[in-house]
Design goal:
Blueprint: H1 4-22, E1 28-29, E2 32-39, E3 42-44, E4 54-55, E5 61-62, E6 66-78, E7 83-93, E8 101-103, E9 108-109, E10 111-119, H2 123-126, H3 131-135, E11 151-158, E12 164-171, E13 190-199, E14 204-210, H4 234-244, E15 248-254
Parallel strand pairs: 2-14
Antiparallel strand pairs: 1-9, 2-3, 2-8, 4-5, 6-7, 6-10, 6-11, 10-13, 11-12, 14-15
Length: 255
């Protein structure tokens, strides 16, 4: 990511600020994120996939067959407004139980912070070339602006004809004019603020995703109308982004 150098400067400033104020060296630790998933409070793992057992706000019965999404730019803002950005990304693959626990590659000084992250990749990061995301077939076609998906949520639902039908709820950067010269009407990555967290040795932060929220708040989602070919539809991508604002919340923080 291009912003790595800036982040290292910010980290150095944060450490120096803490050291000067306390006149002691500040302990550095490696916190972790643990991602958990639920449907309005009902815990979900990949064991619960491939069975139609969930009902969305619109009354559509559905299953989940694949769920993976990327988070990036985890940000720690100290009580003195010093900012540290962990300039990396994590592809959470619930289907294959990969990267459910994310151990930071960079250390964080012990302290109390406002903690946030980006869902997806901001425009600068999305323009980068990531070998790992390429290997996971997470790319967006060039005619849709290139870059990477933010999320792939796939499954089946019972349609209005009482038949099983597939859906592909995919989040990307909103794009108009697909083709050689696409345009981008509005950013659809968004910031998630987890609130105030105290970071110490061995801290594990639970990040909860309520999957049901993707289908209901503030827009009730009708799978009979919006089920596939969502990526070229910029208005739909904006709705997905707006629904995502209520998806994540802070769970348990240990120790």
């Amino acid at each position: 990511m291009k912003k790595t150098y800036i982040s290292l400067i910010i980290l150095a400033q944060l450490i120096l600020s803490c050291s000067n104020s306390n006149d002691n060296s500040v302990q550095q630790v490696f916190p972790m994120f643990k991602f958990t998933h639920n449907w309005d409070g009902q815990n979900i793992t990949n064991v619960d996939f491939n069975t139609i057992q969930f009902t969305n706000e619109n009354g559509d019965e559905l299953s989940i067959e694949r769920l993976r999404y990327v988070i990036s730019d985890i940000t720690f803002t100290s009580e003195s407004n010093q900012v540290l950005v962990i300039n990396n990304f994590n592809l959470v693959d619930v289907t294959n139980s990969q990267n459910i626990v994310y151990e930071f590659a960079s250390q964080v000084p012990v302290g109390t912070y406002q903690v946030s992250f980006t869902f997806g990749l901001d425009d600068e990061d999305n323009a980068e070339n990531y070998v790992y995301l390429n290997s996971q077939s997470f790319n967006v076609p060039d005619m849709l602006g290139g870059g990477y998906h933010y999320m792939q949520l796939d499954g089946k639902f019972i349609n209005s004809s009482m038949q099983e039908q597939g859906y592909n709820y995919h989040a990307i950067r909103a794009v108009d004019n697909p083709g050689a010269n696409p345009t981008f009407p509005q950013d659809t990555f968004f910031n998630v603020n987890l609130g105030t967290i105290t970071i110490t040795e061995g801290t594990e932060v639970e990040v909860k995703m309520n999957i049901a929220e993707w289908f209901k708040n503030p827009h009730s989602w009708d799978l009979n109308v919006l089920n596939q070919m969502l990526m070229p539809n910029s208005a739909t991508q904006i709705i997905i982004s707006e629904n995502g604002e209520s998806v994540f919340s802070l769970g348990e923080v240990t120790p």
